[in-house]
């Protein structure tokens, strides 16, 4: 397959849009948590379980489904996942209780692992020199989907009720299932002759024997925990004094973070120029800075806007660096490498969402921001600890 033929900007833009629309299902409920609290007469700590269930469902979907990308044609697998997600979204629109909505959110997000099926597939088609650029395109779509989903969900909830968000999302997934064959060229999967059980168990072997995979997992989980802690409680922060926003305004706040995604293609070029270690260091430093600023000036709206932007770009930098690193390890195992990385990533996200909600109830914004800062500091310590004895090894990836 020629990369000049199949990785035109138009093709990559279409795939990035598909990935963004898919991953939006994991995150749009974060803008609705205060709405759920009012509609179901529950507190902020309880609503955080909806976000946590979503991320855990996504992680389990990645763990159980994405490894099939080493065996099954991506087009067929993605169409099945899109149909499943659409059906579960319609079911969620009928929810009246927290437990039911959290359970169905878990099932929705199990099927929303489509971007993680496509990422290793497309990375395998890319040349080594353009791999970072391809990953950066897809990461741009993912983060735009994450951030715009909150804005759109907030607007729909204010004007049509929260049930309408799920109806619209179901229709979008059904449309994506129809459009997908026109965007994604159908190619045969590698067809590794390994039983499904052995395919799953082989991921433990990869994790144990690939130090760069373990490093990427640790960095990704820590930064994503910080990112999730911020976004799981920011709606409560903005809806309370002194900001007193409504759901639409909270959703629009997320649009500021979307500006950072305009820089994501540059992240791919920076990664190719300076290496993954330097980009990982920059990612963690920006994450630390965003939480320090938000703790110092939590009641200044402009500071929170700036922090959202910094944090989004930090996440983008880290993801591009980490996935460039792991996709260089073993060409025949890219889906499983990505599975291990993303499961760790979203377990970190679930941890950040759950603990962020708890700390918000106990200590307010200071507790949540402290959690984010600690996660970033731990990531920095881990990277520096491994970098010292292995600087020559790490500098080449």
From TrEMBL:
Domain Major facilitator superfamily (MFS) profile positions: 8-393
CDD domains: MFS_NepI_like
Gene3D superfamilies, alphabetized: MFS general substrate transporter like domains
Matching Pfam families: MFS_1 (PF07690)
SUPFAM superfamilies linked: MFS general substrate transporter
GO molecular function: transmembrane transporter activity
This protein's record includes keyword Transmembrane helix: yes
Membrane-crossing segments per the record: 7-28, 48-66, 73-92, 98-122, 134-153, 165-184, 212-238, 250-267, 274-294, 300-318, 339-358, 364-387
The entry's keywords: Membrane, Transmembrane, Transmembrane helix
Keyword Transmembrane found: yes
Top-rank lineage group of the source organism: Bacteria
Name listed for the protein in its UniProt record: Major facilitator superfamily (MFS) profile domain-containing protein
The organism of origin for this protein: Pseudomonas fluorescens
Organism placement in taxonomy: Bacteria, Pseudomonadati, Pseudomonadota, Gammaproteobacteria, Pseudomonadales
């Amino acid at each position: 397959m020629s990369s000049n033929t199949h990785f035109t900007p138009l093709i990559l833009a279409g795939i990035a849009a598909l990935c963004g629309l898919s991953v939006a299902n994991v995150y749009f409920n974060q803008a609705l948590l205060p709405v759920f609290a009012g509609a179901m007469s529950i507190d902020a700590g309880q609503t955080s379980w909806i976000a946590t269930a979503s991320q855990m469902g996504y992680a389990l979907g990645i763990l159980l489904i994405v490894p099939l990308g080493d065996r099954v044609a991506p087009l067929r697998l993605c169409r099945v996942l899109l149909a499943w997600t659409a059906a579960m979204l319609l079911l969620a629109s009928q929810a009246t209780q927290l437990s039911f909505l959290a359970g169905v959110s878990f099932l929705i997000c199990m099927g929303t692992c489509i971007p993680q099926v496509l990422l290793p597939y497309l990375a395998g088609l890319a040349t080594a020199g353009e791999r970072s650029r391809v990953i950066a395109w897809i990461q741009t779509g993912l983060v735009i989907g994450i951030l715009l989903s909150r804005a759109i969900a907030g607007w729909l909830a204010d004007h049509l009720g929260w049930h309408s968000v799920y109806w619209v999302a179901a229709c979008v997934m059904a449309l994506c299932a129809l459009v997908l064959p026109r965007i994604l060229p159908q190619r045969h999967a590698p067809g590794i002759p390994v039983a499904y059980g052995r395919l799953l168990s082989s991921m433990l072997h990869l994790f144990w024997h690939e130090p760069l995979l373990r490093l990427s997992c640790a960095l990704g989980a820590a930064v994503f925990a910080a990112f999730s802690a911020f976004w799981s409680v920011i709606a409560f922060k903005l809806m309370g004094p002194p900001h007193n926003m409504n759901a639409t305004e909270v959703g629009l706040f997320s649009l500021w973070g979307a500006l950072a995604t305009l820089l994501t293609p540059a992240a791919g070029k920076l990664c190719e120029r300076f290496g993954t270690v330097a980009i990982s260091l920059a990612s963690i430093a920006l994450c630390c800075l965003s939480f320090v600023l938000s703790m110092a000036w939590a009641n200044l709206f402009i500071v929170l806007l700036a922090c959202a932007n910094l944090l989004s770009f930090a996440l983008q930098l880290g993801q591009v660096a980490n996935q460039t690193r792991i996709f260089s390890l073993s060409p025949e195992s890219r889906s499983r490498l990505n599975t291990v990385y993303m499961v760790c990533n979203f377990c970190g996200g679930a941890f950040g969402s759950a603990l962020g909600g708890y700390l918000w109830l106990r200590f307010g914004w200071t507790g949540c921001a402290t959690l984010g800062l600690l996660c970033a500091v731990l990531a920095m310590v881990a990277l520096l600890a491994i970098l010292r004895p292995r600087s020559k090894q790490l500098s080449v990836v």
